[in-house]
Design brief:
alpha+beta, seven-stranded antiparallel beta sheet, 4 helices
Amino acid sequence: MTARAADRPAAPAPRSHPTDADLLARVLTPYKPHCKYLTSAEVTAADGLPSAACAFAIPESCYIDDTGHLNSVEVNIAYNQMMYYLVARSVRDGLLTGFEDWTLDDFWRHQLPDILIARFSSNFRRPVDPRSFTGEMEFRSVTRRTPGGGAPFLHAQTAFRYQDAEGGRCDGEVTLAFVNLP
């Protein structure tokens, strides 16, 4: 180790936040009972860009006969639930850059009408068993934008991946816009 590296303070270890069952239940309130796929979410926070490690179970598709694999609609619904929980937990615990002025009441008010998916891409590498799979999501960046003097919004780049016990895998990237800021 060089003298310079030894002189630098060590980066703080990421803090882990286990699933808050009450918060998870509240986040999933807008979903129909048969569309609540997220069963747990452990949030890790470092440097204002948190991530979540999640577990999911989809016993039966909410809209189509059984395909035997996770499909693009379910990927999106699972992402939404993972993202909503990660944002709610981050707002409540002050973990996400750009959301320092938000309260949990702000999140509840903005959850459905003002958190928009601007771009969603997913890649299916191997079929994923929807009955039991895990997923991760991370915020890569959050920036405040004011286009042409219009209303400011938060622009966030995120990434996700899903996997199952048999090697199934799906991953992707999502751009979010948080509009009508508190």
